[in-house]
Automatic annotation (TrEMBL):
Protein name: IS110 family transposase
Superkingdom of origin organism: Bacteria
Domain Transposase IS116/IS110/IS902 C-terminal, first and last residues per copy: 28-85
InterPro entries found in the cross-reference section: Transpos_IS110 (IPR047650), Transposase_20 (IPR003346)
Organism: Belnapia mucosa
Record lineage: Bacteria, Pseudomonadati, Pseudomonadota, Alphaproteobacteria, Acetobacterales
Amino acid sequence: MAQIEALEGRIERLDSRMVRHAREDETARRLASIPGIGAIGATALAAMMSSPHGYASGRHFAASLVLTPKLHSSGGKERPGRISR
């Protein structure tokens, strides 16, 4: 039981560190303004992204994160759909 409490305390400290870092970092702060992305997700995205200018579009950035749209095809005609969570 004491080991679980120690781990929970460590997780809380790490969470607060990440939130503090997200508030201080300009890129993470801008990413956190996107609906559905919190401080921890914004910090992780900022760490993964080298330079936003290296991507031709948002679609290329999403593909680098392996977020690809669901394809709907019929009769040889491909129509990309939405990106699901």
